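Q: What residues go here?
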């Protein structure tokens, strides 16, 4: 009776073992056969009905059967796991013949390239690179630069005001004042930075752009120092054979004031479409620091003198790379910027 049952279970188990394909199914089968309510366990429970003499023999048979089934289950389980592993490795296989992923390397913006060149030139001449606040007091942006409340120069620079006394700086010239107020002379500094004006965007204007301010204050500084320094700068940026010329101009904080032109680096002064047939290209404003400006910043104009200059960074970048529209610098079209 028990023998028959065992044989039936063995046959059934054999068949089912062939059918199972997942670790979960193997587990279910193990429970169905060997678990607390499993078939083999049920047979062991039925042992009490077996006669005393037969019990050892039958017991041995059941145990053997149990071992056999356990071994078979474990064997099948290992088979299934191996197959799963194989399938996974197959799916994760790396095809070394595929083309590699391209790493897109960024690079410096044309503005930044131009700024670094400018900084290198001035650092080479012993200048310090300093920083100033973009949110500025009216005093530093205008008053202390000899631009009093009713001065027309204030209108020219349509300003973003923050309340009555604070504004987004319209020029980096205010950094001159901060430097002078520190009371450390000699001063030899450049101050690059962002400036803001309520300008409409077009090929040559942007409400946010960059300037590089320059200031030198010491005993015995003359216009000759200004000329020599800025000529060096122009050669450094636009090439050794670059000539410079100074045209009288007016800035409230310098006296005398000038604008500096460079000889056109395309036609070398002959006149071409790039320089609009002028032969010259305007690149910056400059002048000798106004005695009143020195005085307001507690520097004695009878002892000290100085020169200042303001460079439009975008202008330098546009000229250097012969870009004819400032908007291209800000649109951040990678296909465009990539070229520089
Ligand atoms: N701050 C002037 C501007 O924004 C530029 C400038 C001109 C700066 C002459 C100077 C200077 O330091 O001497 O138009």
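A:
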């Amino acid at each position: 009776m028990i023998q028959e049952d065992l044989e039936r279970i063995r046959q059934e188990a054999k068949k089912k073992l062939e059918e199972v394909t997942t670790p979960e199914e193997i587990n279910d089968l193990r429970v169905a056969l060997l678990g607390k309510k499993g078939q083999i366990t049920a047979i062991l429970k039925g042992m009490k009905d077996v006669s005393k003499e037969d019990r050892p023999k039958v017991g041995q048979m059941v145990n053997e059967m149990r071992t056999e089934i356990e071994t078979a289950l474990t064997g099948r389980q290992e088979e299934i796991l191996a197959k799963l592993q194989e399938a996974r490795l197959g799916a994760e296989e790396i095809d070394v013949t595929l083309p590699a992923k391209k790493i897109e390397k960024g690079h410096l913006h044309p503005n930044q390239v131009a700024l670094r060149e400018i900084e290198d030139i001035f650092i080479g001449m012993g200048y310090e690179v300093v920083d100033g606040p973009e949110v500025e007091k009216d005093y530093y942006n205008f008053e202390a630069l000899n631009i009093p409340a009713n001065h027309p120069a204030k209108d020219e620079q349509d300003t973003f005001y923050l309340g009555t006394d604070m504004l987004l700086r319209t020029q980096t010239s205010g950094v001159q004042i901060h430097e002078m107020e520190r009371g450390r002379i000699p001063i030899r500094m450049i101050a690059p930075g962002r400036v803001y004006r309520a300008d409409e965007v077009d090929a040559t204007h942007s409400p946010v752009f960059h300037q590089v301010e320059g200031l030198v204050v010491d005993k015995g500084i003359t216009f000759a120092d200004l000329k020599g320094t800025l000529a060096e700068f122009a050669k450094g940026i636009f090439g050794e054979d670059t000539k410079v010329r100074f045209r009288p101009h007016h800035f409230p904080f310098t006296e005398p004031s000038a604008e500096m032109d460079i000889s056109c680096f395309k036609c070398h002064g002959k006149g071409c479409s790039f320089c609009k047939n002028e032969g010259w290209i305007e690149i910056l404003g400059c002048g000798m620091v106004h005695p009143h400006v020195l005085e307001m910043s507690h520097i004695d104009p009878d002892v000290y003198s100085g020169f200042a200059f303001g460079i439009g960074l975008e202008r330098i970048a546009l000229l250097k790379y012969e870009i004819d529209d400032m908007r291209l610098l800000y649109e951040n079209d990678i296909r465009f910027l990539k070229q520089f």
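A: Context that may help when evaluating the design: The chain has a mean pLDDT of 92. The CA atoms of residues 131 and 191 lie 6 Å apart.
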